[in-house]
Structure formats: structure tokens, C-alpha cells
Amino acid sequence: MHRILLWLVAALVGLLPTAPAYADPGYYVVTAYDNAGLRTVDFRYWTVKFGGRPETIWPELGLGYGVNTRWTTELLYSTIGPSNWDVVPSSLTWQNDVLLTQGEWPIDLALHASLIRQAGYGGQTYALEYGPVLQTDLGRTQLNANIFFERSFEPEDGKPIQMKYQWQLRHRWHPLMDFGLQGFGELGHWSHWNENSRQSHRAGPAFFGHVDLGQGSGPDKALLYQAAYLLGTVYSKHGGMFTLRMQYRF
Q1: Does the pLDDT value for residue 4 go beyond 70?
Q2: 169-205 as b/e, with b when 16 or more CB fall inside 10 Å?
Q3: Domain tally for the chain?
Q4: DSSP label at 52?
């Protein structure tokens, strides 16, 4: 599995051409779990629609692996375009999440880090996203709150470190259907937030579930899904966002 991931990194990096740069606004809520030994195939899809403007879509494909009880790593290849049949490569992301606690505290803590290589004008640009992941349970309800910082490495001097947040409420109702809420936002410079009109905040209902596919020689196989529809601001403009994630674990 390690060799496969390394091979894919090399292959996909070579596929990224010079193209316009886009700031992906979708984000999926990062959660803190022990995924030791689990391999995943991850399909993600989100859309952004502003009033009176064409829809933009971001399909993504990922491969992940639970290296041990604390460390999960995933490689994601993203595209962007106005339709499913008209997309171009957008970014390549290497995501790593490390659990620091595993139930010994009332709130579990993990560290999240993503190295992003994005197609840009005149060449490639890089960004590093990092920050704490917080998760706890109140009865059958799971609560998540994450604060992330993003450092962009531009060819010239670079941009200031940006601050953003994620939160999620998930109530466990039935294995096939949990329901809750999600929210995301971008605040601007970490030490000097943008004025309110230039910040972005969006939230909306979310649905989750999983289907067990039987046991193999290793971890249980399962198909997981989540979907959400968010309203608010993206790029400081009012709009709507639909997100979908399907994950096969084996």
C-alpha cells in the first residue's frame, strides 16, 4: 500500500498542467478516528452556485490508508469545471491526520495537515493547511470543531497565513441514516480578520450513513456516505453549495 501511494503521488503530480488557480471552498469536516489498517477509496463531489451565474463543480478522487492507530494518510486528486464533462485538473493534496488522544480526555484531539499542490498561472503553487481537530460525544450526538490555518507559498513573497473553521453536529439515529448540521467559514488573516463583508460563512443540513459489506481477512468492509447542502457566502459572495462524499473501506 505504501508503494502504491508513492507511485500515485509521482504519477498525479506529473498530470497537473499549467492552468488558472482556484481556491477550493468545499472542505469536508475532518474527524478523529482510529483507522489502523483500513484502506479507502474516496469519491468527493461538490458544487457552488451563485445567483445568475453558471454552476462550478469539483470532483475529487482519493486513496487513503490507516498507517497505525493514530496516523491516517490520504492522497486526493481534484478537478474543476462547469460540468461533469468539462473539467481540468485543479490540485493534488496529501492529507495527514494524527490522533493525540484516544478517549482518555472528554474531548479527543488530533492534528491535521494537508500539503496542496495547485495548478496556477505560469506554474505550480503550493499551500500548507494545518490545525487542531476537536471531537466529543454527548450521548448519541457527535460534535466536531476544527480551526485550520493555510499558508500559501507563492513564487514571489507569498500570502499572509489565512484562518478558517469547520464545525459539525451529527446525531446517530440509524446506521443507514444519521442527520445533523455542518458549517464552514474563512475569516482572513489569522491575526487580523477581514471585515464582515469580506468573510465567508455557510451552514446547512447534513446526512450520513454506512452499509456493512461483510468481513474479509482484515478490517470490516463498508460503504460510507455523507451529503450536505449549505447556504451562505463563498468567496464573500452569497450562494449555495452541495457536497457529496462516498467512501469504500476495506
Answers
A1: no
A2: bbeeeeeeebebebbbbbbbebeeeeeeeeebbbebe
A3: 1
A4: T
Q: Please indicate, yes or no, if residue 29 is contained in any of the structural domains.
A: yes
In a domain, 196, yes or no: yes
Q: Is residue 217 a part of any domain in this protein?
A: no
Q: Which domain holds residue 19?
A: 2-175+187-201+241-249
* The model's pTM: 0.84
Query: How far apart (Å, rounded) are the C-alpha atoms in residues 34 and 103?
Result: 11
**For the chain, counts of helices (H) and of strands (E):** 1, 13
Quick: pLDDT tens for 77-121.
999 998 888 889 889 999 999 999 988 899 999 999 999 998 754
Query: SS3 of 241, please?
Result: strand
176: which DSSP letter? T
Examine residue 219 and state whether it is found in any structural domain, yes or no.
no
Angle among Cα 224, 114, 160 to the nearest 5 degrees reads: 135
Integer Cα distance of 97 and 32 in angstroms: 8
